[in-house]
Specification:
Mean pLDDT: 89
Distance between the termini: 92 Å
Largest sheet: 2 strands, antiparallel
Number of strands: 2
Structural class: mainly alpha
Low-confidence stretches: none
Radius of gyration: 24 Å
Strand content: under 5%
Strand order of the largest sheet: 1-2
Number of domains: 1
Shape: elongated
Order of helices and strands: HHHEHHEH
Number of helices: 6
Length: about 200
């Protein structure tokens, strides 16, 4: 090889192979859609309810004493931060093929639990305003039902996070588990138990 050809070869830009992007696992794709559509439905239900019933915004508290309302506010903020923490862990850190919950359940259980949390959550605000406008035992039963399902789903999610294997990286798993605690307190205790106890039926 001549010196000229060698220098020409060295002058050519190196060819870089395009990075291979692994396809998203179907269960994770479903989880993404559940969060996008379900989360949007929850936010839309709140926005629509408050926009169309501005005079009844205070009534949504359902009789919860003012002394407890700051606790709700703080817990809501912590629950929201916790939701992002454990959802990030589930979606970004877990291997959908290898993961096992309680030793035998697969990744799909997370999708069931997220559906149990998000779908009923989108129904709570419309049902509550309907109850305020025309109270009935049927509506009250539906409200208690959706709150109970969300609470059970959030407790189930915390149990799933506590028993998931493998759980690397450890720090992300601990953050997810800690984040699930205020979310459980908000949904399974404050929303499903305390709020109905004060609602003027």
């Amino acid at each position: 090889m001549s010196a000229d050809s060698a220098s020409a070869d060295s002058a050519r830009p190196a060819t870089t192979l395009p990075a291979t992007r692994l396809p998203l696992h179907p269960q994770k794709r479903l989880l993404a859609w559940l969060n996008v559509l379900g989360g949007s439905a929850v936010l839309a239900s709140y926005a629509h309810g408050l926009a169309t019933h501005p005079e009844a915004r205070g009534a949504v508290w359902g009789g919860v004493p003012e002394s407890l309302q700051p606790l709700y506010t703080v817990c809501m903020l912590l629950a929201t931060a916790g939701y992002f923490a454990f959802t990030g862990f589930v979606f970004l850190r877990l291997d959908a093929e290898r993961v096992r919950i309680a030793g035998r359940l697969g990744f799909g259980i997370f999708n069931l639990l997220y559906a149990a949390i998000l779908i009923p959550s989108a129904l709570w605000m419309p049902l509550t305003f309907a109850m305020l406008e025309a109270p009935s035992a049927l509506l009250w039963g539906a409200i208690r039902g959706v709150l109970a399902v969300v609470g059970v789903g959030s407790v189930g999610l915390m149990v799933a996070l506590a028993t998931v294997q493998p759980r690397e990286p450890t720090r992300s798993h601990r953050l997810a588990l800690v984040g699930s605690l205020p979310f459980c307190i908000q949904t399974a205790v404050l929303d499903a138990v305390v709020w109905p106890a004060y609602f003027p039926v």
